[in-house]
Structures are given as C-alpha cells and as structure tokens.
C-alpha cells in the first residue's frame, strides 16, 4: 500500500474518532519529497548553509532544525540561525534528489559531496560521475528538471 493511501487512511481514522471534526486530505505532504535517511535527516547530515559559504560541511546533531518534516543538521549555531530565518533559501532543489535524474524524470538518492550552488539555489547529484555530466549543461538540465519535477513528485526512488 502506498504511503499516500496509508496517510489518507490514518487521517480518515482520526477524522472518524474525533467525532467528524473537519480534516483536509492532501495526496502527499511536502516532507514526502525531501530526500532523508532512515532517521529523517536531510542531505545525509550535511549543513545546507555551508554550501552557500563555499563548501559542504557535515552538520552536528546538537545544531538541528526541522523543516517540512525533515531534520537538517548544521555545522554551527550561526548556520542554524541563518537557516531558520529563511529555510526556503537554503533547502536543496528537487527535495535534495539528483538534479540530473530529475531532468530525466527519475528520483535518485544523492551524495553530499556533489552539492553545488547555482544562481543562489542548492543542487545535488547521485554521485561525482553524474555531477560531471550535469556540469556539462547546468542551465539546460535545470530547465529540464524544473519542467519534470511535477511529474517526479510522488514517484518511488529509482535507485541508490
């Protein structure tokens, strides 16, 4: 059974048990579209703000913040405060899934070593080899990925 169906069933059960208090059903939550590990941590624990300062750094659990159902770690308290002031400015595009994979209509896990800020937005790719291909036509792949993303949302992850 899909996550969406399970969530809809859970919401319907809460609705019934609450005596019919109005509830809004949505086909998927935004958090479903953020690539996280088994503990719900985005970017494999890397600090999203650090990419905007020059290089991706591992975050620390003591500097954690939640956004759209995902937990983000930060290398410093300063980076955490920066993120919390404007999370949308620092969260990865395409939910942190592979930018090149998204351009081709797929959804792939990513490697934090591939993080790259382009025109003020953070992108990741599946691995360094895929990132090399993406680097050959970044504007073109971003345009393709932007057009494909609405169709990718809700898809299963295609590969490792």
From TrEMBL:
The keyword Signal applies. The keyword Signal applies. Residues 1-23 form the signal peptide. It comes from the Bacteria. Keywords: Signal. This is YHS domain-containing protein.
